[in-house]
Write a structure and sequence with these properties.
Layout lengths: L1 H16 L17 H6 L1 H4 L3 E13 L3 E9 L16 E7 L12 E16 L2 E15 L29 E6 L6 E6 L20
Parallel strand pairs: 3-5
Antiparallel strand pairs: 1-2, 1-4, 2-3, 4-5, 6-7
Length: 208
């Protein structure tokens, strides 16, 4: 009986490991760094390996590489970003070569493995921002996903002092649908990311 249970547990474990796309799998002994550690103590974890995902916010083609600006989301058991969860902020990841923005469109979900380079100052609109940056090892573009409109998302005031996180501030979150020009304003304390709501359905009853 014990042998059967051990065999079953081993099969479940192996199946769980294979859920990740082959490109994204890493050795079991690899210690992956978290987004929080990269943002708060980048110098201590610089050069270490990460496996992060998120929604594409911006694609910038350089002469020999492409820089993706990503809205970070945690991964599920399959390695796919969960866009319904809270986002802790944004990051940038560099891929060698040309990546077509018409394929890697804003809002699509991607997952990366790579090495942390450190922090980099930049802008989100006119807002000063500090991005964790990484060089990609492997990447995966998820298919059949609803693109996330991040154009109206306010960002976290991304600053750290002595390893302490800043308190969030209350601002409104503007949600723009992808098929019309309507917008909804709702109170939010989310640092960043995007949420979506189902559209109401009008039901008309015909008179007999």
């Amino acid at each position: 009986m014990n042998i059967r249970i051990c065999t079953l547990l081993a099969a479940v474990f192996l199946f769980g490991c294979s859920n990740f796309p082959d490109k994204l799998q890493v050795d079991d002994t690899t210690q992956l760094i978290t987004y929080e550690d990269a943002a708060s103590k980048a110098e201590q974890v610089k050069g270490k390996m990460l496996r992060w995902g998120g929604a594409i916010a911006k694609v910038e083609n350089k002469p020999d590489s492409t820089v993706f600006e990503m809205v970070y989301y945690p991964l599920n058991g399959y390695g796919r970003p969960v866009s319904s969860e809270e986002s802790m902020g944004r990051y940038r990841i560099v891929i060698d070569g040309f990546m077509d923005p018409m394929v890697y469109q804003v809002g699509r979900l991607m997952t990366f493995t790579g090495q942390l380079n450190g922090l980099e100052n930049g802008l989100v609109g006119e807002h000063e921002y500090v991005f964790p940056t990484a060089t990609v090892g492997a990447y995966y573009l998820w298919k059949n996903v609803q693109r996330i409109d991040i154009s109206g998302v306010h960002v976290w005031p991304f600053r750290y002092w002595n390893g302490h996180y800043p308190r969030p501030y209350h601002r409104s979150l503007i949600i723009r649908g992808s098929s019309d020009n309507s917008s909804h304003r709702v109170p939010s304390t989310r640092p960043s990311g995007a949420i979506s709501y189902p559209k109401p359905v009008n039901i008309k009853r015909s008179k007999k």
